[in-house]
Structures are given as structure tokens and as C-alpha cells.
Design brief:
There is one protein chain. The chain is of the alpha+beta class. The chain has 4 domains: 8-54; 84-154, no CATH class; 175-258; 260-353, no CATH class. The chain contains 8 helices and 15 strands. Helix 7 (278-298) packs across helix 8 (310-318). The protein is extended and about 95 Å long. The relative contact order is 0.08.
């Protein structure tokens, strides 16, 4: 680090070195006393200069200065967004009507008919992605008897963390300068759309003169049909494709497609420890496998076809306290690793303990 040698003792030594040889500078002398105070103030100044130097580089800047630096390139951290749910109500759906469920509140943003409506969670962040029970209007609504959150249409995300923002900023700067229609521009555009978590682009071919963009939602799962529709309208609106009415460049016909989910059923000989029951350990096994599959989904954008590896599945299950051994694992009824199609991500199915 710059100025790291500018400590009080080093500065004091340098100051004393300017004094003639016939004058005492030992500890306790007037010169030592005067120089020591000056050296302390200079040390503080160097510390502040070090902070200025540190915050001058994206790699080491604190959040406040990283945001200021990124702003020069038109890049800002993603703000926390609001989850959008499809809800089913027997009555009471109306624009602006507010509901509560659990500790969260929702507001109706669209009436879809047949007792269905869109509700936006008023609390920003990923906690709005969790289904709450007991949906009810906040104020008295005549005729209302029951309601429930049916489907998460647009997942919310938390405010982008400092290190995630730093990595995104660095990758954008390092990439080729984005311009109308190149790969970097399309990826930056997709990641800026609310609800999008990852994407893959496929260029036109002689047989198909359309650009294909497959994507996952911000929870790295298959997006809802409503989110696919919304992203399509943002990028290249249906009925006006190629006209440049959306974010896509003129003459570019872009099809927005959902990355599919591949259900993976797991069957294995699982040995539990003494006094342990598999039924009690199953929820933890599901959680561990979900974690592994989420890791694979997060790597889908920058990787090739996803390979679900038996070794990693075994390791995930075996890492649970109470599991002694895992053998003979089969994925979707077959031994060996499972290779998914290029635009598929794994979703946990049943985990079966084979006796």
C-alpha cells in the first residue's frame, strides 16, 4: 500500500536526520518533543492520503467511492426490487387495494379477471419472494372471504452487495465496449431488466435469422410466462420485432425464451447413523441438494451444458450430520453423471433412500 512506511517512528527519524550532528535529539530533549508532535500529525496526514489513494481505484474503493467511480460510466448498483405475485381472490380485487399476509403488505397493480390479480409486495427485497399465508385486505372489503398468493411472477432481489457490484463493474469495464447490437450490449441490457438473473445469447444462423436470448429469473429458476412476456416487450415488442421499438437494435429480431427446468430424481443407498431416521434427515438432504443445484444454475450463464455430478450429489448428502454413507446413487433412474440440455437447469425432484 502507498505510504505504508510513513509511520510515526520513521517520520520522526527522518525529521531528526535534518538536525546538525552537534545537537542532541535523544528522547526527552526539546527537539525530540517538538518533532514527535509534528511526526504524529504527519502520520495522520499520510493515513488520510492512503485512504484517498485506496478510493481512487475500483478494486480497493469503499462502497461510497466505488458508486461514484462507476457512475462516471453510467453504472449503478441494482436497487432492491419488489416481488410481483399472481393472487386469487373470491372478491375485492381492485387497483390500489392493499392486502397483508404474514408480516408483509401488498398492493393490487392489475386486475386480471376471474378473481385473479397482480399484487406487488410493498417491502422491497428478496423476502417478498417467500409465499405468505393468510392473504387478507387491510381495510374492510365487502364480499371478501378468502385469498391466496398463487404464483411468483417477477422475483425481487435485494440491493446489490458491494462485492457483487464491484465484480459487475469490473467485468463491464474489462469487456469490449458495448455498442448497439453487440453481445456485451445485449448482456448488459438483460441484466438491467428487473427480474432477470442470468442469460445466454445465440446469434442468427443461415437457417434462422433471429437472435435467441434464454434467461433465468433473479432467483436462478425458470421464469414465469408473465416475466418472459414482460422481458420480450422490453427488448423487442411482439408485433413490432425488428423495428427498434424496444431496447434491441433496429433490424434485430429477438426472441426471448425461458431457460427450462430439468427435474432430477435421486435414488441412493443412504446409511444413517445410530439412532437417526432417514425421514428426519430428508429435509436437510433436500436443502443441501438445492444448494448444489443453485450453484450449477448460477454458473449456467458463463458455462456450457450443466453436468449434475454423482460425486457432488453424494458429497452434498454425506455432509449432513447423521449420514454415515451414500452409495449406488442414480440420477433419473440411471447411474453416472447427468448431462442437461444447453438451456436447462436442474431442479430437485424426489430423493429416495434405497434399502
Amino acid at each position: 500500500m502507498l505510504f505504508e512506511d510513513r509511520t510515526l517512528e520513521n517520520i520522526l527519524s527522518d525529521l531528526k536526520g535534518t538536525v546538525g550532528s552537534g545537537i542532541s535529539t535523544d528522547e526527552g530533549t526539546l527537539i525530540d518533543h517538538a518533532f514527535r508532535g509534528a511526526a504524529a500529525e504527519l502520520e495522520k496526514a499520510y493515513i488520510e492520503l492512503s485512504l484517498v489513494d485506496q478510493n481512487g481505484y475500483a478494486e480497493t474503493a469503499d462502497r461510497e467511492h466505488l458508486i461514484l467511480r462507476a457512475k462516471e460510466r453510467g453504472i449503478e448498483p441494482f436497487a432492491a426490487s419488489n416481488a410481483i405475485w399472481k393472487a386469487s381472490l373470491n372478491a375485492g380485487a381492485g387497483l390500489g387495494v392493499r392486502f397483508s399476509a404474514g408480516e408483509l403488505t401488498y398492493i393490487c397493480t392489475e386486475v386480471m379477471g376471474d378473481g385473479k390479480c397482480r399484487l406487488m409486495c410493498e417491502q422491497a427485497g428478496a423476502r417478498g419472494n417467500i409465499r405468505q399465508e393468510g392473504l387478507a385486505p387491510i381495510e374492510y372489503t365487502e364480499g371478501f372471504e378468502s385469498g391466496e398468493l398463487e404464483e411468483l411472477l417477477v422475483p425481487a432481489r435485494d440491493e446489490e452487495g458491494t462485492e457483487d457490484f464491484r465484480a459487475r463493474y469490473t467485468s463491464i469495464v474489462a469487456a469490449a465496449q458495448a455498442f448497439g447490437g453487440n453481445r456485451a450490449q445485449y448482456k448488459a441490457m438483460m441484466h438491467g431488466i428487473e427480474g432477470v438473473g442470468a442469460c445466454k445469447l445465440y446469434r442468427v444462423t443461415q437457417g434462422d435469422r433471429r437472435i435467441k436470448i434464454y434467461f433465468l429469473d433473479s432467483t436462478y429458476r425458470t421464469p414465469s410466462s408473465e416475466l418472459v412476456r414482460d422481458v420480450q416487450e422490453t427488448v423487442d415488442p411482439s408485433g413490432k420485432q425488428g423495428e427498434g421499438e424496444g431496447e434491441a437494435a433496429m433490424f434485430h429480431v429477438v426472441d426471448i425464451c425461458p431457460c427450462a427446468s430439468k427435474t432430477v430424481n435421486i435414488e441412493a443407498e443412504i446409511t444413517a447413523g445410530s439412532g437417526q431416521a432417514w425421514e428426519d434427515l430428508l429435509p436437510k438432504a433436500q436443502e443441501k441438494v438445492d444448494g448444489y443445484f443453485l450453484e450449477l444454475a448460477k454458473g449456467w450463464e458463463d458455462g456450457g451444458q450443466i453436468v449434475v455430478r454423482v460425486l457432488r450429489v453424494n458429497a452434498a448428502i454425506a455432509s449432513i450430520d447423521g449420514i454415515v454413507d451414500v452409495q449406488g446413487t442414480m440420477l433419473n433412474g440411471k447411474s453416472g453423471n447427468l448431462t442437461l440440455d444447453p438451456n436447462e437447469v436442474p431442479v430437485r425432484g424426489e430423493i429416495t433412500c434405497r434399502n
